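hiii, so i know i said id send this last week but things got crazy w the move. better late than never?? heres the sequnce for the chain we talked about at the cafe, plus the structure i predicted for it. fair warning i was half asleep when i ran it
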Amino acid sequence: MEFSKVVACDVGHPPLYSPCGKFLAIGLKNKLIIRTSNDLTKIREQQCKDSIEYIEWSSDSLYIITANFKRSLIEVWAIEDPDWSCRIDESAAGLDSVRWAPDGRHVVATAEFQLRITVWSLISHRVFFFKFPKCSGRGVSFSSDGKYMAVLESKDSKDSVCIVNCKDWKIVRQFHADTTDAYDIKWSPDDHFICVWDPPLWYNVCVYNFLGEKVKIFSAYEGALGVKSIQWSPSSQLLAIGSYDKSVRILNNMTWSQVIDLKHKVSITPSSKRIVYEEVSVSTSESAARRIQSEATTKYEVCDSTITLPHKKANPEKANPQLGVGWMRFSTDTQYLASRTDNSPQVLYVWHITKLRLVAVLKHIHSLADAAWNPQAPLLAICCGGSQLYFWSKKGTYVVKIPTPGSFYASSIKWTPDGTTLLIAGKKGFCICACQSFVDM
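okay and structure toks below
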């Protein structure tokens, strides 16, 4: 593995890879900096009107938007034309969120207090309005082919789903949602289904097809906090529902019945098919021997007896209790699912979806800060807010120290689209790690 030098970036706003994987967009106060992703050479610097609070690339990597929500200001920059720029002022209605439409030529802005959604065209300079959006910052989902936008709406205290054609921005379909107070909406990767679900007070997940026909209403239990996270598998064949009862329930898209209930148990007994890895400190003698390899101060140790995983009790009197499956991700090939419960933040579970069983448990010293599957192989990268990276694959585990001068605390990680490079961001900046040889192992 080869690491780059540390480059400065704003805290809380890690750099963003372009969809083509060739560029990195970095926000540094009110400066937008574009660098090449392979060697971090600076190729562009733009001065924005105010501090950058949001960055997003267009789908073709030719444009980029920056936003300042306090000033309700959106700025658009052309990568190939330094003299071209566009400024959108949303101060009349306020700006709560902004995103690109899939074509990369329309900017979709949501006003404060759910007043409206505004679509700004960079081509025709026309503006389109959609009133009564249900949510701010969520409640909007685009189909994978970029042809349609699904929007949650609320009229007369009733939830509905509005399907918009992204070519002419006209409503093509609208149907009632069987929800009490819809929380979010997510299109399946194959564009055949739309999932809508309620907030945690109600365990209610609704699935519809493109025509608005109800396909499935799923509720695992009543009288307790319900859904916490939702994930479609990349193949769209499975819908994973993370719940506050520390279980992931998986539905299949053929019969829409529950395939399995993945329970995140606190006590785990290792076996030949279920390996438990525990992060432990490296002894002084081991550290000297390992210094040539990775200089990691910890390592994974395989447990051979039943282990009780660390967990904390949630305070029921506090809002948004630290409980339930708050994070989960499918591997690109849908073969594995990685998950974590919020009351056991140091522990990562890895499930084999094809075989419907737990294959690995990774217990860390510190809480997980981020994890990401390699887009080309079932390789999972993990960081825990320290100066080390952790990797898991079916072949085993690996721990490597980030060799940067001084202290570097990794808080987020992101793979390039081709899976050859890993971007590691922290409080003091970011660096990149060339992992091609490691991925091919």
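btw The chain has two helices and 40 strands. thought thatd interest u
miss u guys!!
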